[in-house]
Specification:
With about 220 residues, this protein is of the alpha/beta class. The chain has eleven helices and eight strands. It has an eight-stranded parallel β-barrel with strand order 1-2-3-4-5-6-7-8, surrounded by six helices. The longest helix is centred in the C-terminal third of the chain and has 15 residues. The radius of gyration is 20 Å and the shape is globular.
């Protein structure tokens, strides 16, 4: 499974890149606004840090606006993926940009039908929002599983990005359900590699080591 970091914080990206865990980045104008950064500048800075796909979202609502914005955004760096909302206009923009060789990430997917339509339009990635579905009592992980079956059955090359990941279970179950990618906010990353038994085990080891004479090196 690939990990995309859902952030626009450069220090956070640098930290996780050192761990070898960053396969790509997802962003949107809201995330970048929280950083107080210029949209284009921050996207280009991120692209310089990460060799994998960097999703940058359009803000237009019409197909024409999305297509024009998508072309502009894609010109900023070779590894940019244009993030497009799941609407009729978004599907048209996805189809056109795909024909032009521009990679797309269709976001705000909440049903199997939406995911299928995006794949048919040529989306490189689709982003079902697990956490938001769970918030309303729907089965977000079930959606990921069904989308994987649909894409496999009809041999679409579109990859599933499990989005709106809220906790460790979301990540684990998304991988079990067959999501190709999980996009994860930096705030929950430590919970993925931490465990109380790991911490206590290290503490016990260090206490026992302290009883020994000499040094390791």
């Amino acid at each position: 499974m690939k990990f995309f970091l859902d952030t626009a914080n450069l220090e956070e990206i640098k930290r996780i890149v050192k761990l070898g865990l960053v396969d790509g980045i997802t962003t949107n104008p809201s995330i970048i606004a929280k950083e107080g950064a210029d949209f284009k500048t921050r996207i280009q800075e991120i692209c310089a840090l990460v060799s994998g796909p960097v999703s940058a979202e359009v803000i237009g609502l019409t197909a024409e606006e999305m297509i024009n914005e998508g072309r502009e955004i894609a010109s900023w760096a070779e590894n940019i993926v244009v993030k497009i909302p799941m609407t009729e206009a978004g599907l048209e923009a996805t189809y056109q940009l795909t024909k032009e060789g521009i990679k797309t990430n269709v976001t705000l997917i909440f049903t199997e039908a939406q995911g299928l339509m995006a794949a048919k339009a040529g989306a490189t990635y689709i982003s079902p929002f697990i956490g938001r579905l769970d918030d309303i009592g729907a089965d977000g992980l079930g959606l990921v599983k069904n989308l994987k079956t649909i894409l496999s059955t009809y041999q679409y090359e579109t990859e599933i990005i499990a989005a709106s990941i809220r906790n460790l279970d979301h990540l684990v179950q998304s991988s079990v359900a067959g999501a190709h990618i999980a996009t994860i906010p930096g705030s929950i990353l430590p919970s993925l590699w931490s465990h109380p038994l790991t911490t206590s085990g290290i503490e016990t080891f260090m206490k026992d080591w302290g009883k020994l004479q000499g040094t390791l090196i």
